[in-house]
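New to this. Please check both lines:
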Amino acid sequence: MKALVYNGPGQRSWREVPDPVIQDPEDAIVRVDAVTICGTDLHILKGDVPSVEPGRILGHEAVGTITAVGDGVRGVAVGDRVLISCITACGRCEYCRQGHYGQCLGGGGWILGHLIDGTQAEQVRVPFADRSVYKLPDNVSNEEAVLLADILPTSYEVGVLNGTVSPGDTVVIVGAGPIGLAALATSKLFTPSRVVVVDAADSRRKAALERGADLALGPDEDVEAKVRELTGGLGADVAIEAVGVPETFELCTRVVRPGGTVANVGVHGAPATLHLEDLWIKNVTIVTGLVDTYSTPRLLSMLAAGRLQLPGLITHRFGLDEMQDAYDVFADPATTGALKVALFGDQGF
Protein backbone atom coordinates (compact mmCIF):
# COMPACT_ATOMS: atom_id res chain seq x y z
CA MET A 1 0.00 0.00 0.00
CA LYS A 2 0.98 3.69 -0.12
CA ALA A 3 1.54 5.73 3.05
CA LEU A 4 2.97 9.03 4.27
CA VAL A 5 6.22 8.18 6.06
CA TYR A 6 8.18 10.41 8.44
CA ASN A 7 11.87 10.24 7.53
CA GLY A 8 13.25 12.54 10.23
CA PRO A 9 12.83 16.27 10.95
CA GLY A 10 11.71 18.13 7.84
CA GLN A 11 11.49 14.96 5.72
CA ARG A 12 8.45 13.01 4.58
CA SER A 13 7.62 10.72 1.67
CA TRP A 14 4.52 9.14 0.11
CA ARG A 15 5.71 5.67 -0.78
CA GLU A 16 5.06 1.95 -0.89
CA VAL A 17 5.08 0.15 2.47
CA PRO A 18 3.91 -3.32 3.56
CA ASP A 19 0.19 -3.79 4.12
CA PRO A 20 -0.83 -3.95 7.79
CA VAL A 21 -1.77 -7.35 9.22
CA ILE A 22 -3.57 -8.59 12.32
CA GLN A 23 -1.00 -8.82 15.13
CA ASP A 24 -3.31 -9.30 18.12
CA PRO A 25 -6.79 -10.83 18.53
CA GLU A 26 -8.19 -7.38 19.40
CA ASP A 27 -6.89 -5.72 16.19
CA ALA A 28 -8.91 -4.50 13.25
CA ILE A 29 -7.63 -3.61 9.79
CA VAL A 30 -9.42 -0.59 8.35
CA ARG A 31 -9.42 0.65 4.76
CA VAL A 32 -8.95 4.41 4.98
CA ASP A 33 -11.79 6.22 3.22
CA ALA A 34 -11.15 9.72 4.63
CA VAL A 35 -8.20 11.12 6.53
CA THR A 36 -6.91 14.49 7.59
CA ILE A 37 -3.71 16.19 8.73
CA CYS A 38 -3.29 17.55 12.25
CA GLY A 39 -1.18 20.42 13.51
CA THR A 40 0.53 17.79 15.66
CA ASP A 41 1.78 16.14 12.45
CA LEU A 42 3.47 19.44 11.58
CA HIS A 43 5.04 19.53 15.04
CA ILE A 44 6.36 15.99 14.43
CA LEU A 45 7.86 17.04 11.11
CA LYS A 46 9.61 19.94 12.83
CA GLY A 47 11.21 17.49 15.26
CA ASP A 48 9.12 18.68 18.23
CA VAL A 49 8.04 15.13 19.14
CA PRO A 50 11.26 13.10 19.43
CA SER A 51 9.41 9.94 20.46
CA VAL A 52 8.30 9.60 16.81
CA GLU A 53 11.00 7.60 15.06
CA PRO A 54 11.99 7.85 11.39
CA GLY A 55 10.08 5.31 9.32
CA ARG A 56 6.79 5.90 11.14
CA ILE A 57 3.59 6.29 9.12
CA LEU A 58 1.99 9.49 10.38
CA GLY A 59 -1.65 10.33 11.10
CA HIS A 60 -4.16 9.69 13.87
CA GLU A 61 -7.50 10.88 12.41
CA ALA A 62 -9.51 8.86 9.89
CA VAL A 63 -12.77 7.29 8.85
CA GLY A 64 -12.80 3.94 7.09
CA THR A 65 -14.31 0.54 6.47
CA ILE A 66 -13.26 -2.54 8.43
CA THR A 67 -11.74 -5.21 6.19
CA ALA A 68 -10.49 -7.69 8.81
CA VAL A 69 -10.80 -8.28 12.56
CA GLY A 70 -9.01 -10.44 15.08
CA ASP A 71 -10.73 -13.29 16.90
CA GLY A 72 -11.11 -11.16 20.03
CA VAL A 73 -13.08 -8.33 18.41
CA ARG A 74 -16.78 -8.40 19.31
CA GLY A 75 -18.24 -4.91 18.88
CA VAL A 76 -17.49 -4.26 15.21
CA ALA A 77 -17.33 -6.43 12.12
CA VAL A 78 -16.00 -6.56 8.59
CA GLY A 79 -17.90 -4.06 6.44
CA ASP A 80 -18.67 -1.60 9.24
CA ARG A 81 -17.99 2.07 8.49
CA VAL A 82 -16.15 3.45 11.50
CA LEU A 83 -14.52 6.50 13.00
CA ILE A 84 -10.93 5.81 14.08
CA SER A 85 -10.22 7.69 17.30
CA CYS A 86 -6.91 9.46 17.81
CA ILE A 87 -6.76 7.70 21.19
CA THR A 88 -6.54 3.92 21.56
CA ALA A 89 -7.80 2.36 24.81
CA CYS A 90 -7.02 -1.05 26.28
CA GLY A 91 -10.03 -0.66 28.59
CA ARG A 92 -8.42 -2.64 31.38
CA CYS A 93 -5.72 -0.52 33.02
CA GLU A 94 -6.36 1.81 35.95
CA TYR A 95 -6.46 4.94 33.78
CA CYS A 96 -8.87 3.42 31.27
CA ARG A 97 -11.16 2.32 34.11
CA GLN A 98 -11.26 5.97 35.18
CA GLY A 99 -12.00 7.19 31.65
CA HIS A 100 -8.50 8.64 31.19
CA TYR A 101 -7.89 6.79 27.94
CA GLY A 102 -5.17 9.16 26.81
CA GLN A 103 -3.03 7.90 29.69
CA CYS A 104 -3.64 4.19 28.94
CA LEU A 105 -0.99 1.94 30.47
CA GLY A 106 -1.99 -1.19 28.56
CA GLY A 107 -0.54 -0.31 25.18
CA GLY A 108 -2.97 2.42 24.17
CA GLY A 109 -3.14 6.20 24.48
CA TRP A 110 -1.91 8.32 21.61
CA ILE A 111 -0.10 5.63 19.65
CA LEU A 112 -1.35 5.93 16.05
CA GLY A 113 1.13 7.96 14.03
CA HIS A 114 3.25 8.26 17.16
CA LEU A 115 4.40 4.93 18.57
CA ILE A 116 2.85 2.70 15.88
CA ASP A 117 1.99 3.30 12.24
CA GLY A 118 -0.88 5.69 11.70
CA THR A 119 -3.78 6.57 9.46
CA GLN A 120 -2.23 8.57 6.61
CA ALA A 121 -2.19 5.45 4.46
CA GLU A 122 -4.46 3.30 2.36
CA GLN A 123 -4.96 0.92 5.31
CA VAL A 124 -4.28 1.00 9.04
CA ARG A 125 -4.12 -1.52 11.89
CA VAL A 126 -6.12 -0.36 14.92
CA PRO A 127 -5.39 -2.10 18.23
CA PHE A 128 -8.13 -2.61 20.84
CA ALA A 129 -10.70 -2.11 18.10
CA ASP A 130 -13.77 -2.59 20.31
CA ARG A 131 -12.81 0.49 22.34
CA SER A 132 -10.95 2.53 19.70
CA VAL A 133 -13.32 2.75 16.73
CA TYR A 134 -16.95 3.92 16.59
CA LYS A 135 -19.61 2.69 14.18
CA LEU A 136 -21.00 5.62 12.22
CA PRO A 137 -24.68 6.43 11.64
CA ASP A 138 -25.74 6.52 7.99
CA ASN A 139 -26.61 10.23 8.18
CA VAL A 140 -23.09 11.28 9.24
CA SER A 141 -20.77 11.73 6.25
CA ASN A 142 -17.12 10.75 6.16
CA GLU A 143 -16.19 14.42 5.92
CA GLU A 144 -18.20 15.33 9.02
CA ALA A 145 -17.06 12.29 10.98
CA VAL A 146 -13.33 12.78 10.46
CA LEU A 147 -13.53 15.98 12.54
CA LEU A 148 -14.55 13.82 15.52
CA ALA A 149 -11.34 11.79 15.43
CA ASP A 150 -9.35 14.49 17.22
CA ILE A 151 -10.10 18.20 16.95
CA LEU A 152 -13.67 18.13 18.27
CA PRO A 153 -13.08 15.99 21.39
CA THR A 154 -9.72 17.70 21.99
CA SER A 155 -11.09 21.22 21.90
CA TYR A 156 -14.17 20.20 23.87
CA GLU A 157 -12.46 18.19 26.61
CA VAL A 158 -9.10 19.93 27.01
CA GLY A 159 -10.25 23.45 26.19
CA VAL A 160 -13.92 23.90 27.02
CA LEU A 161 -14.60 21.34 29.76
CA ASN A 162 -11.21 21.53 31.49
CA GLY A 163 -11.42 25.30 31.14
CA THR A 164 -14.85 25.21 32.83
CA VAL A 165 -16.54 27.46 30.26
CA SER A 166 -19.88 28.49 31.78
CA PRO A 167 -22.92 30.57 30.80
CA GLY A 168 -22.11 34.27 30.71
CA ASP A 169 -18.33 33.82 30.58
CA THR A 170 -15.92 35.85 28.51
CA VAL A 171 -13.79 33.34 26.61
CA VAL A 172 -10.57 34.27 24.81
CA ILE A 173 -9.27 31.71 22.31
CA VAL A 174 -5.71 32.31 21.14
CA GLY A 175 -5.34 30.60 17.77
CA ALA A 176 -7.99 30.32 15.04
CA GLY A 177 -6.73 27.21 13.33
CA PRO A 178 -8.85 24.03 13.34
CA ILE A 179 -8.50 23.44 17.09
CA GLY A 180 -9.27 27.06 17.93
CA LEU A 181 -12.33 27.10 15.68
CA ALA A 182 -13.50 23.79 17.14
CA ALA A 183 -13.07 25.34 20.61
CA LEU A 184 -15.17 28.27 19.40
CA ALA A 185 -17.94 25.93 18.22
CA THR A 186 -17.98 23.80 21.37
CA SER A 187 -17.64 26.71 23.82
CA LYS A 188 -20.81 28.18 22.35
CA LEU A 189 -22.68 25.10 23.58
CA PHE A 190 -22.34 26.70 27.04
CA THR A 191 -23.66 30.15 26.02
CA PRO A 192 -20.74 32.39 27.02
CA SER A 193 -21.55 36.09 26.87
CA ARG A 194 -18.74 36.69 24.37
CA VAL A 195 -15.94 34.83 22.61
CA VAL A 196 -12.82 36.71 21.51
CA VAL A 197 -10.43 35.03 19.08
CA VAL A 198 -6.80 36.06 18.52
CA ASP A 199 -4.82 35.02 15.44
CA ALA A 200 -2.07 36.47 13.28
CA ALA A 201 -3.70 35.51 9.95
CA ASP A 202 -6.37 37.75 8.43
CA SER A 203 -8.05 34.73 6.82
CA ARG A 204 -8.36 32.91 10.12
CA ARG A 205 -9.70 35.93 11.97
CA LYS A 206 -12.31 36.24 9.23
CA ALA A 207 -13.11 32.55 9.59
CA ALA A 208 -13.60 32.99 13.33
CA LEU A 209 -16.02 35.88 12.84
CA GLU A 210 -17.97 33.91 10.22
CA ARG A 211 -18.31 31.06 12.72
CA GLY A 212 -19.65 33.12 15.59
CA ALA A 213 -16.76 34.89 17.33
CA ASP A 214 -17.81 38.26 18.75
CA LEU A 215 -14.41 39.84 18.17
CA ALA A 216 -11.26 38.78 16.31
CA LEU A 217 -7.95 40.46 17.12
CA GLY A 218 -4.47 40.36 15.62
CA PRO A 219 -1.37 40.00 17.82
CA ASP A 220 -0.23 43.49 16.84
CA GLU A 221 -3.28 44.91 18.61
CA ASP A 222 -3.31 45.50 22.37
CA VAL A 223 -5.15 42.30 23.15
CA GLU A 224 -4.89 42.71 26.92
CA ALA A 225 -6.35 46.22 26.82
CA LYS A 226 -9.19 45.17 24.52
CA VAL A 227 -10.15 42.27 26.78
CA ARG A 228 -10.03 44.46 29.89
CA GLU A 229 -12.21 47.03 28.13
CA LEU A 230 -14.78 44.37 27.24
CA THR A 231 -14.89 43.00 30.78
CA GLY A 232 -14.94 46.13 32.89
CA GLY A 233 -11.26 45.72 33.71
CA LEU A 234 -11.52 42.10 34.91
CA GLY A 235 -10.10 39.98 32.08
CA ALA A 236 -11.20 36.71 30.52
CA ASP A 237 -12.96 34.06 32.60
CA VAL A 238 -11.35 31.40 30.40
CA ALA A 239 -8.34 31.71 28.09
CA ILE A 240 -7.83 28.78 25.69
CA GLU A 241 -4.37 28.34 24.14
CA ALA A 242 -4.74 26.66 20.73
CA VAL A 243 -1.39 27.21 19.02
CA GLY A 244 1.45 25.63 20.98
CA VAL A 245 4.17 28.30 21.12
CA PRO A 246 5.49 30.16 24.18
CA GLU A 247 4.14 33.56 23.12
CA THR A 248 0.53 32.39 22.84
CA PHE A 249 0.59 30.57 26.18
CA GLU A 250 2.07 33.60 27.91
CA LEU A 251 -0.57 35.83 26.29
CA CYS A 252 -3.27 33.61 27.78
CA THR A 253 -1.80 34.04 31.26
CA ARG A 254 -1.89 37.81 30.82
CA VAL A 255 -5.49 38.12 29.58
CA VAL A 256 -7.08 35.81 32.15
CA ARG A 257 -8.75 37.45 35.14
CA PRO A 258 -8.01 36.69 38.79
CA GLY A 259 -9.85 33.47 39.58
CA GLY A 260 -9.99 32.50 35.91
CA THR A 261 -8.69 29.48 34.03
CA VAL A 262 -6.05 29.04 31.34
CA ALA A 263 -6.69 25.87 29.32
CA ASN A 264 -3.68 24.86 27.24
CA VAL A 265 -4.63 22.75 24.22
CA GLY A 266 -1.66 23.44 21.93
CA VAL A 267 1.23 21.00 21.48
CA HIS A 268 4.41 22.71 22.64
CA GLY A 269 7.87 21.99 21.33
CA ALA A 270 9.73 24.60 23.38
CA PRO A 271 9.60 25.81 26.99
CA ALA A 272 7.28 28.65 27.93
CA THR A 273 7.92 30.99 30.84
CA LEU A 274 5.45 30.69 33.70
CA HIS A 275 5.39 34.09 35.40
CA LEU A 276 4.54 32.95 38.89
CA GLU A 277 5.73 36.31 40.21
CA ASP A 278 2.56 37.74 38.64
CA LEU A 279 0.22 34.76 38.77
CA TRP A 280 0.64 33.47 42.32
CA ILE A 281 -1.59 36.15 43.82
CA LYS A 282 -4.37 35.90 41.19
CA ASN A 283 -5.88 32.49 42.02
CA VAL A 284 -5.42 31.45 38.39
CA THR A 285 -5.97 27.82 37.43
CA ILE A 286 -3.83 26.41 34.61
CA VAL A 287 -4.92 23.13 33.04
CA THR A 288 -3.27 21.07 30.33
CA GLY A 289 -4.03 17.69 28.90
CA LEU A 290 -4.02 15.07 26.22
CA VAL A 291 -7.53 14.33 25.01
CA ASP A 292 -9.14 11.18 26.44
CA THR A 293 -11.97 11.01 23.85
CA TYR A 294 -14.51 10.03 26.51
CA SER A 295 -16.78 12.64 24.88
CA THR A 296 -16.67 11.12 21.38
CA PRO A 297 -19.94 9.13 21.68
CA ARG A 298 -21.78 12.22 22.93
CA LEU A 299 -20.36 14.45 20.19
CA LEU A 300 -21.19 11.84 17.57
CA SER A 301 -24.76 11.67 18.87
CA MET A 302 -25.05 15.47 18.74
CA LEU A 303 -23.66 15.54 15.20
CA ALA A 304 -26.10 12.87 14.03
CA ALA A 305 -29.00 14.79 15.62
CA GLY A 306 -27.98 18.06 13.95
CA ARG A 307 -27.15 19.70 17.28
CA LEU A 308 -23.46 20.22 16.54
CA GLN A 309 -22.59 22.17 13.42
CA LEU A 310 -19.13 22.76 12.01
CA PRO A 311 -19.63 24.72 8.81
CA GLY A 312 -16.65 25.22 6.56
CA LEU A 313 -13.95 23.79 8.82
CA ILE A 314 -12.70 21.66 5.92
CA THR A 315 -11.52 24.11 3.29
CA HIS A 316 -9.47 21.90 0.95
CA ARG A 317 -10.11 18.39 -0.39
CA PHE A 318 -7.69 15.99 -2.04
CA GLY A 319 -7.43 12.44 -3.23
CA LEU A 320 -5.47 10.17 -0.92
CA ASP A 321 -2.60 9.98 -3.41
CA GLU A 322 -2.28 13.80 -3.23
CA MET A 323 -0.97 13.60 0.34
CA GLN A 324 2.18 15.61 -0.35
CA ASP A 325 0.19 18.45 -1.93
CA ALA A 326 -2.23 18.40 1.01
CA TYR A 327 0.68 18.80 3.46
CA ASP A 328 2.04 21.75 1.51
CA VAL A 329 -1.34 23.48 1.55
CA PHE A 330 -2.03 22.77 5.22
CA ALA A 331 1.43 23.90 6.32
CA ASP A 332 1.07 27.33 4.68
CA PRO A 333 -2.32 28.67 5.83
CA ALA A 334 -1.32 32.32 5.46
CA THR A 335 -0.97 31.78 1.71
CA THR A 336 -3.55 29.06 1.08
CA GLY A 337 -6.26 30.01 3.60
CA ALA A 338 -6.37 26.37 4.73
CA LEU A 339 -8.15 25.44 7.92
CA LYS A 340 -8.64 21.68 7.86
CA VAL A 341 -7.80 19.55 4.83
CA ALA A 342 -9.44 16.24 4.01
CA LEU A 343 -8.18 13.44 1.77
CA PHE A 344 -10.42 10.75 0.37
CA GLY A 345 -9.79 7.29 -0.97
CA ASP A 346 -11.60 6.07 -4.07
CA GLN A 347 -14.57 4.89 -1.99
CA GLY A 348 -14.50 7.69 0.56
CA PHE A 349 -16.29 10.53 -1.21
